[in-house]
Amino acid sequence: MAGPRAALLPLVLQLTSLAQVSVTGGGGVILREPPQLVDIHDSGQQEPAHPSAPAGAPQEQGRPLEERLGRLEAQMVALREQNKELEARVRQLESCECRPASAQCWGLGQAWPDGARWEPEPCTACVCREGAAHCEPKLGLPHCRGCSHNGQAYRNGETFSPDACTTCHCLEGAITCTQKPCPRGPCPEPGACCPDCEPGCPEGHRAGETWHPEPCVICTCQAGTVRCQGPSCSELNCLESYTPPGECCPVCRPGCEYEGHSYEEGASFLSSSNPCLQCSCLSGLVRCIPLRCPPNPCPEPVPRPGHCCPTCQGCTEGGSHWEHGQEWTAPGDPCRICQCLEGHIQCRQRECASLCPYPARPLPGTCCPLCDGCFLNGREYRRGEPVGSGDPCSHCRCANGSIQCEPLPCPPVPCRHPGRIPGQCCPVCDGCEYQGHQYQSEETFRLQESGRCFRCSCQAGEVSCEEQECPVAPCALPASGPQLCPACVLDGEEFAEGVQWEPDGQPCTACSCHDGVPMCGAVLCSPAPCQHPTQPPGSCCPSCESCTYHGQVYANGQNFTDADSPCHTCHCEEGTVRCSLVDCPPTTCARPQSGPGQCCPRCPDCILEEQVFVDGESFSHPRDPCQECQCREGHARCQPRACPPAPCAHPLPGSCCQSNCNGCAFGGKEYPNGAYFPHPSDPCRQCRCLGGSVQCLARHCPPLPCPEPVLLPDECCPQCPAASSGCPRPGGGVPARHLEHFSLPEDPCRRCLCLYGSVSCQRLPCPPAPCAHPRQGPCCPSCDGCLYQGKEFASGERFPSPSAACHVCLCWEGSVRCEPRACAPAQCPFPARGDCCPVCEGCEYLGETYLSSQEFPDPREPCNLCTCLGGFVTCGRRPCEPLGCSHPLTPAGHCCPTCQGCLYHGVTAAPGETLPDPLDPGCSLCTCQEGSVQCRKKPCPPALCPHPSPGPCFCPVCHSCFSQGQEHQDGEEFGGPPGSCEWCRCQAGRVSCARLPCPPLSCPLQVTEPGSCCPRCRGCLAGGEEHPEGSSWVDPQSPCSSCMCHDGVVTCARLQCVSSCARPHQGLNDCCPRCSDCEHKGRKYEPGESFQPGADPCEVCICELQPEGPPSIQCHRRQCPSLVGCPTSQLLPPGPQHCCPTCAQALSNCTESLLGSELAPPDACYTCQCQDLTWLCVHRACPELSCPLSERHTPPGSCCPMCRECVVEAEGRRVADGESWQDPSNPCITCTCHGGHVECDPEECPALSCPQGWAKVPEAGRCCERCQASAQSCAHQGREVASGESWAVDVCTTCSCVAGTVRCQSQRCPPLSCGPDEAPALSPGSCCPRCLPRPASCMAFGDPHYRTFDGRLLHFQGSCSYVLAKDCRGGDFSVHVTNANRGRRGVAWTQEVAVQLGDVTVGLLQGRVVTVLWDGQSQVEVSVPGSYRGQMCGLCGNFNGFAQDDLQGPEGLLLPTEAAFGNSWQVPEGPGPSRPCFKGREVDPCKASGYRARREANARCGVLKSSPFSRCHAVVPPEPFFAACVYDLCACGPGSLADACLCDALEAYASHCRQAGVTPAWRGPTLCVVGCPLDRGFVFDECGPPCPRTCFNQHIPLGELAAHCVRPCVPGCQCPAGLVEHEAHCISPEACPPVQLTGDQPPRPLPSPGQ
After folding, report:
1. What kind and span of H or E run contains 4?
2. At what angle do helices 1536-1555 and 1491-1501 cross, to 10 degrees?
3. Is residue 390 a contact partner of residue 510, using CB atoms and an 8 Å limit?
4. Does residue 667 come out as left (phi exceeding 0), alpha (psi in the -120 to 50 range) or beta?
5. In this structure, are residues 718 and 155 in contact, taking their beta carbons and an 8 Å threshold?
6. Where are the beta strands (DSSP E) in 1195-1300?
7. CB burial readout 1313-1342, b (16+ within 10 A) else e
8. For the sheet containing 327-329, what is the strand order?
9. How far apart, in whole angstroms, are the C-alpha atoms of residue 999 and residue 1454?
């Protein structure tokens, strides 16, 4: 086979590689890849010529082959031409430099000119010839010699590896070899070279390391093998799927198709085949759960086709039944229309169309207003009823919901220009109206017209004008028409003509200036065309600019949630609110949950790593930021975060994503930016890292001198071949050619190479299998199957994982990928873990597993109870029993509240605990009792000062002090009352005073003068005069008695005379005989000198001047002072030359407690009495005795002598002591014997005047005569009274019939002196008054106003019956008033007063006199004594001295308004026909009546502040009464009723003035005049006596009569002076029946006619 056929195979082999041949410039070929192929042309040079064909072979066999070879050669020429172009491209790429156009050579990175030489290596020399470089080795140099090893030639300096573990180096012909170092890092597996290397994987990966070569591929190094697997994606059960950008696994396209219908993602719908399944579309999957039917409101619901749950045929509520679709009006709210729809009631607001401006309010039970009447300014008018317009000159009436006004008709007038008078409607001729202006009669005015000026005058409705010169106009005037420049003045403000304005503070009044006259009228509000209008502050009429709904104001266009119903959303539009049920958004989970106070259900949250995430939220995994999670249906689903593509080709891995371009990751290794490194799989290329991108270029090879260099295996650069020689094959056979590869028959896994005649064999190197689990092939591991955990598997085979349960593995081209067995999605949200897949036969909830139908406590909320049912978990609060308390407490650790404690506004209280009210901690206390909290106001401590002020909690507190009419601040010091000698201090509202110290006095009697502070020593007080200590004086009543003052005791006694001369003489006025000439025993005494005449120290003589004649001496015994109260044992006899005894102890003082008492001193002849803080001791005068001296004796301890019997000289008889007898000569004298002294007393008879026909008759045994008459009866007030009968006219007067004449006697009362806190009061049934605690009074007057006991003025207009005043503690009495309407709704007047006494009438009479005064019209006054202080209640207040807390209701609570306070005291009316009764409201009649009414009321009530009442202003402030008066006049309206209201108010103020002691004279001829019956003699008196003079009391003194009547003077009809009242007529006192005055005899009652 040496012919052409033999050459065909190598030729074809070479042709297949021609695309990879590069042609050098010299025509040689540089072989690239693979190195075994040789160019055909050069091969022809190397091979010997083909031998000729063997003999006998036909020539024709080779001809077709030659033709084909010819064609191949032609193709070769064409290929060589193409190779030249390829060579040029390669050269350009490798040099990266441009070649010059001239013949240059390129080498060592530079251009060499033609003929230049250079040495690219030390052993190579190159020369440039005609643009081609010719290089040759320098074989002559020793260091350029090469080496030979195992038949292989190596250049000088070349490094080579004869085997895998050795590295050799050729240097100047010598070879040195070393062992290769073992790698420090991991190696694929320990081998012959490096038995101890760290196990790992190629590219430097350590055992167990995981990395991502691509975004969706994860690789792991395990046991020296790299295992890579793609993403583990679950099987999708959806119509259409797609892979989102950055994701690894496909997902279902949103939306579902179910039963032939398409549904959007998240949609919820009912199954069309089974209406009892509620389905939802989630993540492309349809999940269905059975419907739970809601409880039906009707007893027998009916199933319907196509519906799951039975529905009600009708609706039932409150005992009423409606059919489906039926409409009705809601009971109690006619504006709500309700409809029954499938058992459920839906209600809406009825809308009313407004057809007229002022429609009447709807009829009871209807909703829409009617045009059959009018409703204007808060009042209803019937059709045709007149309506007040505020203009008296127009007549308005209601017509079909609108107001029609017409001017009043006026009579014709006899003048051409009648004027108008303010207040009158029709023009009169008293003035003129000319060209639109009003002028008074005889008024002159100027006009300007067409530039001409006129002077005009008005005369009785006629106007006459004459032309004048025009003055300078005061204001700019247009050229035409009569003009004025008027302005209007109202309340001191000026307004220009034509201006409209609103008076200050009167938003509902509009004024305009017209012809200089301000005209004001009420603003009429038309009804707002909306259902919920708002009245803006300061405006008059409500508007639809916003909505007022349930007390809150909402702007137009605002959406809000109804506070009473959180599941309703409301919208305010043009003043009308419309509400509808909230549309809850569809939930994306199977079991949404609803919380308390939450309207719409929502999906449960997720808990991951103890953190809570909201349903639908996307978040990073708390522990692994490279995972992105999403919360769905309570479960967190996590997957690796999607990474954006890096801006470079080979970025470094970052924390999560491979995106760091500041280095390169290439071939499993990381390189810094700018580093050079060998290509990991192609040793002939060098790479460089630049900004995350890798650039790899071929290495430069040196030029060779041989024309046909050879590229050896595992080399990068070609070499020149040695001489070719064949090699013998082991085992014989055809020798192998040079460079031929062959295999050994006995070992197909070894490969041999024939090289330069020698054979080198080595085991075939197995390339690393590109798979993790290769199967062992004939020689090398093969990836056409898998060896996994000792078992072999075919590629594409699936098998269960031997190591992980529930995992399935797939062998694919030598790699094994295991993943969890794909489970169908569970049809429940909380499936339990099965053997491999989740199952709905139980529940896994928050990490715990539960059996189906098992109840368990909620792990998140201990008070919730959860139930597992078929993979569904429903949780709800544990049921708690209903409690009977209002504020139960849930103890810690308990779920249900109990009544064993209270929770009140966030504050916890134990049972029975009292704590401050959280809403009002300072003023209110709350008590917890059995789970309910009751709060009440703290009791106020009593304010101990007389004028407290309201402090915290409205309690009276004392800050300042009142003393002597002056106010003193807290802490201030001041002097006490004048003369009190006190220094006072104000502290916490109380005044404390301390007395100034006084020096001590030694005298027993001390007195403090008025106006001075300290006492002084006092002498003795006798007869109203003070006598100094030790002085003597003559008793003025008894000139011969002498008094002396000693130790505060006055001793008076008659002078005991002593004679000092032989012939004394005694004058008429002398008490003792005198001795003329002041001389005694030869010694002359000067006037005033005294001496002792003898040895007795008790005798004394005094020389006294005489009115006529010389001085004389008078002598008497010395008077000794009385030793009052000195015990006998303490009496000391007088010493030598002393007259009087003394007492060893101090005498007793006459103190206030002893005033009026008597005391016997040691001397029995004296009697001492305590008077004026002085003991007055008087010597007794002894009576004359009738018995002879011998019979007289003085008993021991007695002063005067006495006899045992009396001697009656005239009758010559003796009478025993104590016996009485009548004088025989005069029966009117009676005598008695007293210890020997006879006393006789005459009896006086009154003057006796007997009526005609009567006779004076003496009475046996009596001194005085009496009148006696025949039996004659009397006539009295039209009835006959028998003679001798008596009867009582009043409690003080008794009358009797004596001989046909009525005689009356009146009891006279003793004078009465009451203390400052008392007042005289008359008890019922008593004639004479007594002193009682001063009363307090409460008054109701006007419409009505109430002035409480504590002085507060209230306005309350309820027209029912009320408790005016009541004893709330003792229940002694109560006063009820009934108020009546006085023609106007909302205001009332007192009409009737009823007094009810308690059961114990005696308790009312003993010191508790209650007075009720009622004028019969509108004024009632209740006075109670001070003993009722703090016990009262009712409209009159509580009488505690503190006006601020008078608004207390019957429960003791302070009420916020006067109307609420008044209504709280309403009582049911008594028996009889009932009348309309209206509760009181907070009414301001002046606001309703308008500006004019208030102005007129202010003016008319001004009389209260004017001069008739000026004297009263200082004692009774007029302001409260003025306010009440204005209030009443506004309420009464115009007309005569207003006059009565004004008089009521003025009389109420005048009554308070009279009580304070001031009587104003305020009535006038036109002001509240009182008409009295003049024909019966009465006249009006502003301050008349409350108890007038009558025939029966005309003899009683005026002061005594006033004491009977505890009232001050009253206005009314009185009899004139000099006349008395008798039977409703004024008569003269002489015309009265006779009246006889007696002592204190109680009157007898008048007998009834039957007696």
Report:
1. helix 4-15
2. 40
3. no
4. left
5. no
6. 1205-1208, 1213-1216, 1220-1222, 1229-1234, 1237-1242, 1255-1258, 1265-1268, 1274-1276, 1279-1281, 1286-1290, 1293-1298
7. ebeeebbbbbbeeebbbbebbebbbbbbbb
8. 327-329, 336-341, 344-349
9. 56
The per-residue pLDDT for 1465 is 92
- Taking CB atoms within 8 Å and a gap of at least 24, the contacts of 1518-1522 are 1518/1549, 1520/1347, 1520/1353, 1521/1353, 1521/1545, 1521/1548, 1521/1549, 1521/1552
Angle made by CA atoms 92, 96, 99, in degrees to the nearest 5: 60
Which two three-digit tokens encode residue 105? Answer: 């050579």
Question: Residue 661 in contact with residue 646, Cβ under 8 Å?
Answer: yes
Query: What amino acid is encoded at 1600 in this protein?
Result: E
Q: Longest C-alpha distance within the chain, in Å?
A: 243
Burial label for 997, CB within 10 Å (0-12, 13-18, 19+), is exposed
The Cα–Cα gap between 1538 and 434 comes to 37
Q: Please say whether the dihedral angle defined by the alpha carbons of residues 1061, 1063, 1066 and 1072, taken in this order, is positive or negative.
A: positive
For residue 271, give both structure tokens: 């199954």
Question: Is it true that the peptide bond before 1107 is cis, omega within 30 degrees of 0?
Answer: no
β-pairing verdict for 217-222 and 225-229: antiparallel
Distances (CA, A) of 1131 to 571, 1142, 1326: 113, 6, 56
Q: How many CB atoms lie within 10 A of CB 131?
A: 15
- The residue assigned the tokens 């009720």 is 1412
**Strand duo 1049-1054 + 1174-1179: pairing:** parallel
- What sign has the CA pseudo-torsion 464, 470, 475, 476? positive
Do residues 1220 and 1231 touch, judged by C-beta distance below 8 A?
yes
The amino acid at residue 1322 is L
Least confident of 877-881, 1237-1241, 1584-1588: 1584-1588
Three-state secondary-structure class, residue 1486 = helix
Contact 1147, 1049 (CB under 8 A): yes
Give, to the nearest 10 degrees, the angle between helix 1491-1501 and helix 1519-1532: 130
CA 100 to centroid of chain Cα atoms: 98
**Residues 6 or more apart whose Cβ sits within 8 Å of residue 1564:** none
| Rounded Cα distance, 92 and 108, in Å | 15
Contacts of 582 (CB under 8 A, 6+ apart): 561, 567, 568, 569, 599, 600
With bands split at pLDDT 50, 70 and 90, how would you rate the model's confidence at 1478?
confident
- Burial of residue 1453 (CB within 10 Å: 0-12, 13-18, 19+) is exposed
Q: Alpha-carbon dihedral of residues 538, 543, 546, 551, nearest 10 degrees?
A: 70
Q: Cα dist. 947→475, 966, 968, 1424, 1443 in Å?
A: 63, 12, 12, 21, 10
d(C-alpha 858, C-alpha 855), whole Å: 9
pLDDT in tens, 1240-1285: 888 878 777 777 667 677 766 677 877 766 566 787 777 788 777 7
Read off the pLDDT band of 1011 (50, 70, 90). Answer: low
What pLDDT, on the 0 to 100 scale, is given for residue 1364? Answer: 92
Rounded CA-CA distance 282/289 in Å is 13
What mean pLDDT is predicted for residues 681-709?
82
Q: Which residues contact 230 (CB under 8 A, 6 or more apart)?
A: 216, 217, 248, 817
Q: Which residues, 6+ apart, have CB-to-CB distance to 909 below 8 Å?
A: 889, 901, 902, 903, 915, 926, 928, 933
Which of 179-188, 212-221, 662-671, 761-770 is least confident? 179-188
Residue with tokens 């790299």: 226
- 753-758-763 Cα angle (round to 5): 40
